[in-house]
Amino acid sequence: MSCDELIKYASTEKYKAICRNLVRNNELAKDLFQEFLLILLEYDKKKIILQPDAFLFRILKNMACSSTSPFYQKYRKKN
Fold it and tell me: What is the model's pTM?
């Protein structure tokens, strides 16, 4: 799957729901989803993703749960 296809695939309700489940806060989930899409936009467009669901879920999980992620530092550390 190309990067452009990946972004379109990730821009669905499925990944918004995953964001809500990971952070359990609707406003924070919206922020997580927006930051997630920004990361995908910056991703190397030449790379081909063979397992898109696993790849996308791992990005979201790392963003939401890793205390070293920029998202965590910016939004979750305060809460």
Answer: 0.86
